[in-house]
Amino acid sequence: MELIILLGAPGAGKGTHALRLAEARCIPQIATGDLLRQQVREQTPLGSQAKEFMDQGQLVPDVIVIKMIQERLSRPDVARGALLDGFPRTLAQAEALSRVVPPGVSIRVIALDVADELLLERLVGRRSCPGCGAAYHIRFAPPKQEGVCDRCQTTLIQRSDDKAETVAPRLKAFHEHTAPLLAYYAKQGLLSHVDASQPVEAVYRDLVQQLAAQP
Ligand code: ADP
Ligand code: AMP
Q1: What is the per-residue pLDDT for 180?
Q2: Which of 37, 89, 122, 127 is catalytic?
Q3: Three-class SS state of 127
Q4: Is the CB of 8 inside a 6 Å radius of any atom of ligand 1?
Q5: Which end of the chain is more exposed for a tag (fewer CB within 10 A), N or C?
Q6: What residues of the chain score a pLDDT lower than 50?
Q7: Is 159 among the catalytic positions?
Q8: How many angstroms separate the Cα of 148 from the Cα of each of 72, 106, 128, 143?
Q9: Can you tell me the distance from the alpha carbon of 122 to that of 106, in angstroms, rounded to the nearest whole number?
């Protein structure tokens, strides 16, 4: 069983690469952001609790996210492994994850490094598929037909938190709470870095190369 964790700021490219990499390795992509948005859409109690934090660009409290991911990781499709996109995002989440991972599981953590200056344009230009989770960009990764997902033909949307005023708190939350995970995983010898400011294809190539190499 392998567990691959993509660590990176909002807009670094986690979803873009997670979808493709998970398909290539025949393991599920698990994106806590997608799971939370589904709860919001379905208007569940968890969704209504999470929504106020998401709308403000803040992290959803650990207890909520940890419970949700524990449930997801207990499903049978995770038997061969999983690609985690957007989780863990805090030290408490990383510690909770380490408690549920069975011994002998190979964990790889890849940091997608991008300077903050590039992220605003990536996020405000992002268009997302509510059907399959694919991410597009009006300039850097446009769909073949404007506004329509190449993979499942669903109409693309602009996420409500992908507006300029919500990007700043999201980046702040990343630096405050998630960036410390880089040292946490480096200390355990599990971390590799990829320069995610490159074009998409070059980032994917480096990601595959890093996964093939020793951490
Ligand atoms: P994350 O999941 O880390 O928040 P996404 O994968 O959704 O990020 O990417 C954010 C936006 O940036 C999307 O619009 C995507 O198309 C675009 N993008 C992703 N990687 C790159 C890249 N290497 N160069 C330019 N744009 C990119
Ligand atoms: P994302 O789709 O990964 O950009 O996540 C969107 C929003 O969902 C974030 O801004 C947070 O509010 C929330 N979220 C997603 N994953 C987590 C997590 N692991 N911990 C806390 N909040 C999360």
Answers
A1: 98
A2: 89
A3: strand
A4: yes
A5: N
A6: none
A7: yes
A8: 29, 37, 10, 7
A9: 32
User: pTM to 2 decimals?
Assistant: 0.97
Q: Extract the tokens encoding 24.
A: 């290539």
**Predicted pLDDT at 103:** 82
CB 184 within 8 A of CB 91: yes
Res 215: pLDDT:
67
pLDDT value for 15: 97
Q: What is the pLDDT of residues 75-86, one digit of tens each?
A: 999 999 999 999
Order of strands, sheet of 81-85, starting from the edge strand that comes earlier in the sequence: 29-31, 81-85, 2-8, 106-113, 191-195
14 is catalytic: yes
**Token pair in block for residue 208:** 């595959």
What is the phi-psi region of residue 31: left when phi exceeds 0, alpha when psi lies from -120 to 50, beta otherwise? Answer: beta
Q: Whose CA is nearest to atom 12 of ligand 1?
A: 122
Q: Which atom of ligand 2 is nearest to the CA of 87?
A: 19
Ligand 2 atom at minimum distance from 32 CA: 16
Q: Is the CB of residue 11 below 6 angstroms from any atom belonging to ligand 1? A: yes
Does residue 126 carry a catalytic annotation?
yes
For the Cβ of 15 lying below 6 angstroms from any atom of ligand 1, the answer is yes
How much is the pLDDT for 14? 98
